[in-house]
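JOB MANIFEST
job_type = single_chain_structure
chain_count = 1
residues = 473
[input]
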Amino acid sequence: MKRIGLFFVTALAALTVSCDKDFESINQSPNDSQVTDPNLLLATTIISTQNVLYNAQVGGDMGLCWAQHWSKVQYNDEEKYIPRRALMNSVWTSMYASVIGEAKAAYTLAGDEGNTNLQGAALVMQANAFQILTDLYGPVPFDEVGIPTVFKPAYNSQEEVYDRILDLLDQAENLFASGSGDITVSADLLYGGDVAKWRKLAASLKLKALMRISKVRNVSTDVQALVNSGLLMSSNDDSAQLAYTASQPDANPIYETIVFSTRNEYKVSSVLVDKLNSLFDFDRLEVFAQVNNSGAYVGNVPGTENSGSYNNFSSPGEFYLDPELPGVMLSYAQVEFYLAEAANEGIISGGLAEAKIHYNKGIAANFSFNGLSVSPAYLSNSVVDFNTQADAREKIGTQMWLALYGQGIEAWTEWRRTGYPALSPVANAAISAIPRRFYYSTDEQNFNQASYAAAVATLDQGDTMLSKVWWMN
């Protein structure tokens, strides 16, 4: 992955600002992008997506804490399932306005230029954003999004949204295959203009979407076709990740909150520490966490407050508090775990033997991301290795959970899908189960009431965090 400085986006944006004082300029719609370079719009979608997911109050409080990777020793309402609705609103608004809206504009402008590669990348970013939205909320607007005359868009069912996501990714593949036009190197904050890697991302995101719905739909033919295509990620170099910079305001948002803003209440959880110790996974423990003031790795029990003893508990590891920690959109390790699961469940050919090959590759890839090398002894240890389908199912899910450390929303979402490792609601929880979804944006309740009410009526427990999303059935 090429490291592209985010300062480019700020600088290029400045070049688009007009000093024209005439009537036409003054009366341009504030809802329409005034930027005409579709490459810059693509950069905006990448930054906006990752900044939302790595925001410590979103991906930390309602991701890493709900997945029980982290625990807070103070200010832990969100950890106890009492969220700030404004934060949930912000995810909805950012994904629709700053990602989907800009990606649609980039697609149209790139089409005017005959640049199918840039169009493909814009569709990939749309597909990724829509999947984030529907996985978080359930039914969401899709078909009527971006239609100028529609101010109160209807919601599509989750099944429909997934059909549209898969179609967007198929369209992207067709556009990449035609191969016309370039993606500006300095604006492509994921791959530095490498279209072949965008093509792999499209295929790998399709694998992710298919595996996420694999318990409610037969996806075998489509997943096997992806394996046969040779287009899936094949090394860590293919991982889609935003390179943050060492300085404000373009550092990783986790660093900006915990280090720069000195929010030291964020600690690792006892669940994470205990799981790593039980797997003899001491190498990753040393990366995921720091020792406490007694030189030991001690996690806070999720949901408990220990405001008078911050230093008794382990903070997240220095690697994960680095301002340049990459913002991972999709990793090669995650792709390998999906393939391991697919082989284990008979979705693709190969059975248990093939599952083990992909499983070991996924573990090795995550160790490498963390600056480590996995040992044969670790892979062959009975608490890591497997010999039955049921054992494999649990261990693949657990290793996926570990590999998603740092990616809060994704870690919680994959846990919701697999149920591994077994987690219980935190101490002092405000509701009876670990949340299954976000509340809808309050703006939708206020300004799109009919569509909102129709969507809520399809949820098994209404607009609550206990309602299941479609693929959890």
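[summary]
The two ends are 37 Å apart (CA to CA).
The longest strand covers residues 327-330.
exit_status = 0
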